Amino acid sequence: MKKTKFFRRFNIIDVLAAVFLIVAILISFYYYTNDDGLFKKQQFEIEYTIRIDKIENEFLGNLSHYDILYDYSSAFPIGEISDIRTYPNDQYYSAMEIVVDAVAEIHNGVISVNGIDIFAGKWIEFRTPNIVHGGNCVAVMINDRLDGAK
């Protein structure tokens, strides 16, 4: 009795069918992920507030409007100061709130600016040309989506 083989040789038709299938999968994956698909990162303008509970009064003038904030550890820019509010504690120290405008990406519900996650309750260490400090992010507000979609 003759045995039948389950495997046969590949020919050019089999190779073309496999290539066509792979190309179809890659094209559908590209459109799924880049046309408002699952993995598309949406860009928004955000405004977040950093609260510094205790800063020496002599350093209050080291921050000014339109200064660029940089993440302390990565040195990536994390926004531009749009407002500064100070609250005197005593003759040596004050509390300060810094309002920062930035362009952020939202991916899977996480807001990030240049790869730095921004959320209320996070300790943010930052630097500017004149000061290195840290504070708690106390508020994040999403303003406008940049690609025009709603």
How would you describe this protein?
This protein has 150 residues and is of the alpha+beta class. It has one helix at 12-34, and strands at 42-56, 68-71, 77-88, 93-107, 110-113, 116-117, 123-127, 132-145. It has a six-stranded antiparallel beta barrel with strand order 1-4-3-2-7-8. Strand 2 and strand 3 (77-88) form a beta hairpin. It is rod-shaped, with a radius of gyration of 26 Å. The termini are far apart. The mean pLDDT is 86.
Query: What is the makeup of the main sheet?
Result: 6 strands, antiparallel, barrel
- Name the overall outline: rod-shaped
Q: How many H/I helical runs?
A: 1
Distance between the terminal alpha carbons, to the nearest Å?
71 Å
**Fraction in helix:** 10-25%
Strand order of the largest sheet: 1-4-3-2-7-8
Order of helices and strands: HEEEEEEEE
Instruction: Give the rounded overall mean pLDDT.
Output: 86
Low-confidence segments: none
What structural class do helix, strand and pairing data support? alpha+beta
Write down the oligomeric state: single chain
Relative strand content: over 45%
Q: Any idea what the radius of gyration is?
A: 26 Å
Per DSSP E runs of 2 or more residues, the count of β-strands stands at: 8
Set down the secondary structure blueprint.
Elements: H1 12-34, E1 42-56, E2 68-71, E3 77-88, E4 93-107, E5 110-113, E6 116-117, E7 123-127, E8 132-145
Antiparallel strand pairs: 1-4, 1-8, 2-3, 2-7, 3-4, 4-5, 5-6, 7-8
Short précis:
The mean pLDDT is 86.
Key words describing this protein structure:
six-stranded antiparallel barrel; 15% helix; 150 residues
